[in-house]
């Protein structure tokens, strides 16, 4: 990529992102939550979901699509379930509050679910899964999104890239941490390859007629994880996430949701749905025992021989924790455009 | 395939499978549950997990690896969580009882989890997810299994094919139903291709050195879903299933578990772990509302245009329900060897 980049210390970036969202009208609590989630992604190396999104959110806060001063409504319906109306505020505020509520209920009930409707983009799902893991819970965070992934065997997009994130605490170590879209690549990758005029990897995208293509300029939608042969698996997973995030909460289904980007409509609410679950190992064999087993599991994973000499086998999240260490020390690299917009 | 096959009426097969398991010593309740799960798979077209497995189970019941007369122990630890010790009996008995308990707790708590250790192979995970859906619950069933799937980027198998099954009730229709391994293909497919001396599909299996191969005779282990490029996604999912099924319940981790097949050891307990969860839509927006949304979702899916003219786009489970209809009418096709063993 020929694009110019700028390296910014994490603390400076964090302060600026918060201020930038506040300037766009976001309430202190929602700007703080969004900043925390964006910094999670920027520090862990998930730049697509990092600080650059603040610019998008500010546009939507100003346009009215995101409510700058949401009033979250929580309705606890049972010992383990709470419903949240996110009042169209920044999804990160809803996300942290919802996972917090799920953890609170899991303390007694053993598991807690907070089902969220009337939300907006919540950034990287992993932020909320890790929030649960930091409280010694197994956290699971799901969200639906606007459709840009083909249904398996169909010529039209039907599901979003619907992320699944999970995290689990580990004795004497950082959490196991897994955050994935249910497509092989994000659509941003297609945009990047267009700008580079470079062939896409095989079996990840399709044309408007549903034909698999490697030409990024012809790529109209993504294929579900598993590609042309096994995409029914990725599509089934995406469907499960739609069911848990949207059908259960009353949010808009993926195919009916207005797009997050590439639209002039900055005003209409999108009614995104999320699903947050915390599972409390204390109500199973005990949190210390669970964390010990997790340590054993990861130790046994880490000694698996690699197919590439010199390249160690990593557990989910391990690379991200390494990037976080490096970026806390060395700063976060921003593209010139994001830097100029945020720091102008 | 040149193998001879025999078509058997479903009711006849069901009676014979039950009797066959009883003859191998299985208690009535456990033989009944195993028969129900095997017939689920045989009817839905999942022949790898159907009636043929009765022969394997009988061998293990006689060898002592499966306890023919298990005494299930259930310990409810909170409003939403129960732990089960399956006493090394047929995993199907544990499976139905555990999902039943999860549903019972979900009635009040909104979600129920039953965590099972000291179990054995439970057949097709989908049987238990559907059991929950038949009670108007969203059902999720997971299990770990002995390692035959490479860790992404490693030369050794580390996770099992670890299935994920989910089902959800639909207004005026059969449940949405998704049952998948976290590898692209099951290892049985490799065995089949060996017997046919036919090249495997690309990107699904690896040699003992971890090199991707299409030669079924060189294939030593499977690749996780996503293959060589995106297998970290399948491996992460498999890991999540190991964590929920085994680390949480105290079952044996995949890499330490003795193999299900290809072993002379018919005596040693395997301590397989399962995770069953029922989510009660009644504690969200109401079961009728949820089922109505599911109907809308599937209606919108069903009108998606197909990439192959004349081949309709199907929702997860739709093909399986069609096969079930056909097999209830026309009978179930068994390979000659299974037929001879069961009906001799």
UniProtKB/TrEMBL annotation, chains A, B:
Q: Superkingdom, according to UniProt?
A: Bacteria
Signal sequence, start to end: none
Q: Name any one GO molecular function.
A: oxidoreductase activity
Q: Name one Pfam family in it.
A: Ldh_2
Q: Which UniProt keywords apply?
A: Oxidoreductase
Work out whether the entry's keyword set contains Ribonucleoprotein. no
- Family the entry assigns: Belongs to the LDH2/MDH2 oxidoreductase family.
**This chain belongs to which protein, by name?**
Malate/L-lactate dehydrogenase
What is the scientific name of the source organism? Acetobacter orientalis
> Could you read off the lineage of the organism from its UniProt record?
Bacteria, Pseudomonadati, Pseudomonadota, Alphaproteobacteria, Acetobacterales
């Amino acid at each position: 990529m020929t694009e110019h980049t700028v390296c910014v210390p994490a603390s400076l970036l964090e302060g600026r992102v918060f201020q930038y969202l506040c300037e766009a009208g976001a309430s202190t609590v929602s700007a703080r939550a969004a900043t925390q989630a964006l910094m999670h992604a920027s520090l862990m190396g998930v730049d697509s979901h990092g600080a650059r999104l603040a610019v998008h959110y500010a546009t939507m806060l100003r346009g009215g699509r995101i409510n700058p001063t949401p009033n979250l409504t929580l309705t606890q319906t049972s010992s383990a379930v709470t419903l949240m109306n996110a009042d169209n505020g920044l999804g990160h505020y809803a996300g942290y509050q919802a996972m917090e509520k799920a953890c609170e209920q899991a303390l007694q009930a053993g598991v807690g679910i907070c089902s969220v409707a009337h939300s907006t983009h919540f950034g990287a799902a992993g932020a909320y899964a890790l929030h649960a893991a930091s409280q010694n819970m197994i956290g699971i965070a799901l969200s639906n999104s606007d459709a840009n992934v083909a249904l398996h065997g169909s010529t039209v997009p039907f599901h979003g890239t619907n992320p699944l994130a999970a995290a689990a605490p580990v004795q004497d170590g950082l959490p196991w941490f897994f955050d994935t879209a249910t497509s092989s690549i994000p659509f941003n990758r297609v945009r990047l390859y267009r700008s580079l005029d470079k062939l896409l990897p095989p079996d990840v995208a399709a044309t408007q007629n549903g034909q698999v293509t490697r030409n990024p300029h012809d790529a109209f939608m993504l294929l579900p994880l598993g590609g042309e042969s096994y995409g029914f698996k990725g599509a089934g997973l995406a469907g499960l996430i739609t069911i848990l995030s949207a059908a259960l909460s009353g949010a808009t289904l993926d195919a009916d949701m207005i797009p997050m980007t590439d639209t002039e409509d900055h005003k209409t609410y999108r009614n995104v749905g999320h699903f947050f679950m915390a599972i409390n190992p204390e109500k199973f064999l005990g949190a210390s025992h669970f964390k010990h087993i997790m340590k054993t599991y990861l130790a046994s994973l880490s000694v698996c021989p690699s197919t590439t000499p010199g390249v160690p086998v990593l557990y989910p999240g391990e690379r991200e924790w390494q990037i976080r260490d490096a970026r806390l020390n060395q700063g976060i690299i921003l593209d010139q455009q994001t830097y100029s917009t945020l720091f102008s």
